[in-house]
Every structure is written in structure tokens, then in C-alpha cells.
Amino acid sequence: MVRLFLLNIILLCLFTSSAVSAPRIELVEQLGEKIPLDLSFVNSAGENVQLRQLIDRPTLIVPVYYECRSVCNFMLGGLSQVLPDVKLVPGEDYEIIALSFDPEETVELAKHNKKTYLTAIQEPFPEGAWHFLTGTQENILQLTDAAGYYFAKEGKEFLHPVATFVVTPDGTIVRYLIGQRFMPLDLTMALYEASEGRIGTPIRKALEYCFTYDPEGRRYVFNLLRVSGTVILLTLGSFMLFLILSGRKKKK
């Protein structure tokens, strides 16, 4: 009995140790929280830069690792394809940061990836509007932890959420975009949200009225009932006004 009891204790300790050391791989959205803008990274030109030097307007942050040949590659390639359809001016209305969360990746990899994905856009795109960064493990984890983005290395690969996030000029997280595919409307609306009214308020309000954010699908959807109801009410109102004005003219 004593041996069996001791064996059970050992198994319990091993199980508990395994559970505690299990890597955390998940996305915990931190909407409304700020990322630390004083963190330093190295850009594709080999220059040390602080996030506050790069984030001075709505910014899309894309956590990836450059040697990934599957999801990260598809994500960056998909982003390159939709950027021409985003009706905002890169470098003026928004910035993009691709951040490698692998501290072993080099400036040369960042430079190669920047050239690859800027070329994939197939349209003129200002180089200064899309930054490709590398950094130390400490600074990477400070940024990803602040964004609720948890990942782990398994062998030579990384297990990680497939998500990007949009921040305001002061680093406040306003939206997460989930998945490796980007829709121009989703990206445009998220950047509008982060603009803090820098894009005309009436336009933004009209867009918000016509499109509703779906938190489960994490995308904007066209609000057919709201828009069609408004159109019907406006049509009826116009018709009633026409009848009233016509009646007055006949009396005269």
C-alpha cells in the first residue's frame, strides 16, 4: 500500500509539473489597452528604432516569423494583395509593422521579406509605410504580452495565434483581425476606428451606420436590415411630403 501511495504521489507531481510548464498559446484580446511605445527594435536597414518613432498614426501590427513557410507567409502575401484596395493613403493615413517574434531572426531576413512583400503589392507603395522589425526576446515578449498574443517554439517551428491588431497613434489597441486572410473592408474600417476622427467624422459615422462589427466572426458585415429600413422610411417620408405639397398646390 505504501509503494502504491508513493507511486500515485510521484505520478501526480509529474502531471502537475507538466501542466504548469505547458506553453501558453492563445490570443487574449486587450481592447482599449496600450502597447509600450518605448520598446526598441531593429528595422530592415539595421537601425535601432523605438515604437513611438514608427507609430504616429493608425498602425497595423502583424506578428510573424520570417522563416515561416505556411501561415505567416500566406498572411503577409495576402496583406500585400489587399493593400491596393484599402482606400487610405499609406504613410499618411496608416502604417504597417511586421514584427518577427523569433529573436534569432536577422536584419537580412527582415530586409529580404520587406523587398518580397513590397514587390508583391504590384503597385507603388512607400517603403517607409511598411516596417519589418526584429528584436530581443525581452522586448518582443513585452509587446506581445501587452497585446495578449501568446506563442511558443516547438522544435524549429512556432505555435502561435493567427492574428494582427490595429493601434491608435498613442498605442491603444482598437481592433484585432483574426485569420490569415484580410478583407479590404475589414482593414479599412479598423484603420478608420484607429484614426480618432482624423478622417472626417461624417464619413466614419456613415460607415459605422451601414456596417456592424461582428465580434464572433471578428469582421464588419453589411447591416441590410438597418439600411433597407432607412431607405423605406426615407421613401415613405418623401412620398408623404410629395402628397402634402401636391394637395396644397391644388387648393391654391
If you had to describe this structure to a student in words, what would you say it looks like?
With 252 residues, the chain is of the alpha+beta class. It is 43% helix and 20% strand. The chain is built from eight helices and 13 strands. It has helices at 2-21, 51-54, 71-82, 107-120, 137-146, 184-194, 201-210, 224-251, and strands at residues 26-27, 40-42, 48-50, 59-64, 95-100, 130-133, 149-150, 152-154, 157-159, 163-167, 173-178, 211-214, 219-222. Strands 6-5-4-10-11 form a five-stranded mixed beta sheet. A two-stranded antiparallel ribbon has the order 1-7. A two-stranded antiparallel sheet has the order 2-3. Helix 3 (71-82) packs across helix 4. The chain starts with a helix and ends with a helix.
List keywords for this structure.
single chain; 252 residues; alpha+beta; 5-stranded mixed sheet; two-stranded antiparallel sheet; 43% helix
